[in-house]
Amino acid sequence: MTTNLLRRHCLNFFSTLALSAALCMPAIGQTQDAPKLKIATNQGDILIELYPDKAPKTVANFLQYVKDKHYDGTIFHRVIPNFMIQGGGYDAQYKERSMRAPIQHEGRQAMTAGLKNQTGYLAMARTNDPHSATAQFFINTVDNAFLDPTPIPDGDPVKRFEYRGQVYENVPRENLLNALQLFGYTVFGKVTAGMDVVNKIRTTPTGMGGPFRTDVPKTPITILSITLVQ
Q1: What is the CATH number of domain 3-15+34-148+184-228?
Q2: Which of the residues 13, 24, 67, 123 has the least number of beta carbons within 10 Å of its own beta carbon?
């Protein structure tokens, strides 16, 4: 597998530095209309809920993959204890599952609605292209504020914005976003039960596996199924 293909299916951890100018957002509690799902793994069950009112395209995309049984038999192929666990793209033989077309990035919309990359929250994995998420997702195992979209002042053009010591003045909003890759990662759900299973997975020994040089569980962590329970 080429470097470019590897990059496609892993979070670009090193390209996004700690940007933590995090906004103060309200806590997200369980809502009656939030779809509830069960991720059954060979390590135990993880219950999650999704937020279609905050990331509608992302949630619809995930639910379609669930309906298609795409995730059944896939693995968590990337596990970093103090970061996240990532899966949904490969089977136990590291064969890549077929994906549908990528979806539009909704990270800023979701963050404005209160969703952030905090412990136990689910987000979509993607490449350097913010609009490239397909089926792979990850569960944050710690608070990862640097994965959130970078707050930008209101207005278009943006009158003044300072980023990493550089000052930008009167720049069209879209140009600023595209030039500086300030999109972050789209959060669309959270774990409501089974964090003990997540923590068990995140502490599993890792090493090389298939096409990946590191961070692969030595004992496969398999997603047996993801099913809608409510």
Answers
A1: 2.40.100.10
A2: 24
